[in-house]
Known about the structure:
The complex is a heterodimer of chains A (about 160) and B (about 270). Chain A has about 160 residues and is of the alpha+beta class. Chain A is built from 5 helices and 5 strands. Chain A has 2 domains: about 1-75, Beta-grasp domain (Ubiquitin-like (UB roll)), CATH 3.10.20; about 85-155, [2Fe-2S]-binding domain (DNA polymerase, domain 1, Orthogonal Bundle). Chain B has 11 helices and 12 strands. Chain B is globular and about 55 Å long. One FE2/S2 (inorganic) cluster (FES) binds near residues 101, 102, 103 and 137 of chain A.
Amino acid sequence: MAKIKLTVNGVKHTREVEDRTLLANLLRDELKLTGTHIGCDTTQCGCCTVHMNGRAVKSCTILAAQADGADIVTIEGLAKDGVLHPVQQAFTDCHALQCGFCTPGMIMAVAGLLKDNPNPSEEEIYHGLEGNLCRCTGYINIVKAVKQAAGQTEEAH
Amino acid sequence: MYSVNYVRAKSLKHAAEVLAQNPEAKLLAGGMTLIATLKQRLAQPSHLVDIAGIGALRTIRLSKDKLSIGAGARHYEVATSQVVRDAIPALAYLASQIGDPQVRNMGTIGGSLANNDPNADYPAAALGLNATIVTNRRRIKASDYFQGMFATALEEGEIITRISFPLPKKAAYEKFPHPASGYAMTGVFVAVTGRGVRVAVTGAGQGVFRWTQAERALGKNLTPEAIAKLKVDAEEMNEDMHASREYRANLVNVITRRAVAKLASAG
Ligand SMILES: Cc1cc2nc3c(=O)[nH]c(=O)nc-3n(C[C@H](O)[C@H](O)[C@H](O)COP(=O)(O)OP(=O)(O)OC[C@H]3O[C@@H](n4cnc5c(N)ncnc54)[C@H](O)[C@@H]3O)c2cc1C
Ligand code: FES
Ligand code: FES
């Protein structure tokens, strides 16, 4: 068993888990933060994306033990005082989701992308979202939302 | 995933000790290959020895004629390091094209070279630049290190500590990524060095290889046209559901020409 201490969305937690426990399972099953989704077995879909020490990572392919001591932010930690994070607001405004399954991971990936590159070109947006799959939207409105969140808002329509 | 014992290595020595005491133990770096494999129950190590916390393995150092990168440097660190960008921009570019951002935020150069996936990107840079793989026991020339699909010169319990890249005059990397996985269907690293031109090809064959015929032609005439009519032997290429041998053999020529064209603008 591994004794894990980590900070999730600003709250300190200590848990004893099996060594093989994945971070995604710790978040979902132990901490009941079920916004982090698990969509594949192959580290490809990105639904499980969270931030670990400020970087976007796939929590389904990281052991909880590897995250011992880390600072984790999940989709539940983005909104502040009831105000949506600009990326969340942009996804709402631009209709960047349909079923919503990919959305938490997509938003965490976009937040990570904009942190590294606050003003990405369209090509950089596509390259920056290569780790996230969406089976519904066709990505067009997701890219629109990234542009809005980056302050590149198109003419109001 | 099968049950496993996780150990966070405090130092290189500690990691080596745990490996020596436990023949079924495995090193864990970024986990982007290993954890993914364990989830599929394709391996069952007794211990995972996490070396990500060893700071000395993360450093990037430049000397007069070499760039030395710690085995634990993550792909995003290599991609964004100003030192790497200035010294060997093609290497920083290569790192920026691996997988996706989340994979680059965890995966390491040492893990990639230890794994030696036939479609991985770093092997092309290591062989193309004639790098030395430094371990806790010895120094291994890239030409001796790569031994075919997933096979390397590494012995049981041996740990890659650094990769030392001689600085080229100029270099370029070009990749034809698999549209779903991002791995190289074919990736070509071309380097112009003091001792001639080197062309290393990943993704197309059973493992990374040098295309010596192209090297000779480019040594005389460093233009895409110089190799337009050259062909690699399709029989020696890899074949799978994604592409036939003939398709890959053709890709090698096309991607090498693109890499050579890039050299014109490369530093
Ligand atoms: C979705 C996805 C897409 C990817 N796309 C690409 C791509 O386009 N191109 C590409 O090249 N790769 C790609 N990869 C693989 C990625 O680059 C991995 O990070 C890399 O292959 C392994 O590095 P790691 O640090 O994650 O190693 P780990 O998974 O931790 O380890 C891999 C192996 O290396 C051993 N090992 C690790 N470090 C050392 C060391 N210092 N000394 C000796 N042995 C060691 C481990 O024991 C293990 O056997 C992709 C991976 C995923 C999940
Ligand atoms: S659940 Fe698909 S990448 Fe993590
Ligand atoms: S909105 Fe359904 S998968 Fe993206």
